[in-house]
Amino acid sequence: MLFRSRVQAVFPEALTVHRLDMSTSGIMLMALGVSMQRQLQRLFEQREIHKTYIAVVAGRPVPEQGEVDLPLINDWPNRPRQKVDHILGKPSLTRYRLLEYNAEEDSSRIELQPVTGRSHQLRVHMQAIGHAILGDPLYASESEQARSERLLLHAEAICFDHPVNRGKVSYHCPEPF
Q1: What angle is formed at CA 100 by the lines to CA 98 and CA 102, rounded to 5 degrees?
Q2: Contact indicator for 150, 160 with CB cutoff of 8 Å
Q3: Is 75 part of the annotated catalytic residue set?
Q4: Does residue 122 contact residue 133 with C-beta atoms inside 8 Å?
Q5: 3-state SS of the chain: helix, strand, coil percent to 5?
Q6: Quick one: which of 97, 121, 162, 171 has the most CB atoms within 10 Å?
Q7: So what's the pLDDT on residue 22?
């Protein structure tokens, strides 16, 4: 991972806590040292770190806000893809909210909040409800892929209480699309 190497060139003790899929832009979280990494990972496990993503999806979600509660599992024959599996899948929950609909392009800018943190969760959940993220090479149809040169998914914000001083930590990175 190029980004991690660049950070570690300045802060050798920096360790990854929250990473992004290679095609997703936005905020990543790193810790200075093993102790802080463990404390931050514990906050993730306890769902005390809140993340907000922005995506542009095909069509207009109805209802305009809601939850996608579909269990996910690795699609081993088609790795790195994931899939919905109601028998063996792990519980996965995503909240979404319509921010803006573009009728001319039949696309929607939506806010996504993953409650769980499964690989490709946002991408699979949006595709599963019929609103694939534009530019997604793994889950969008060919025509939905062709509507953008990149995956239109961005980690816009992360918020949590610092594990040592309990002060509120909040980072925001506006989406570039």
Answers
A1: 125
A2: no
A3: no
A4: yes
A5: 20, 35, 40
A6: 121
A7: 85
- The H or E element containing residue 161 is strand 153-161
Closest CA to 56 of 111, 1, 15: 111
Q: How many Å apart are CA 45 and CA 33, to the nearest integer?
A: 18
Catalytic residue among 21, 69, 75, 161: 21
Residue 82 has pLDDT above 70, yes or no: yes
Which residues, 6 or more positions from 115, have their beta carbon under 8 angstroms from its beta carbon?
47, 93, 94, 95
Report d(CA 51, CA 104) in Å as an integer. Answer: 30
Does residue 1 have a pLDDT over 80?
Answer: no
What is the enclosing helix (H) or strand (E) of 107?
A: strand 107-114
- pLDDT tens per residue across span 56-67: 999 999 999 999
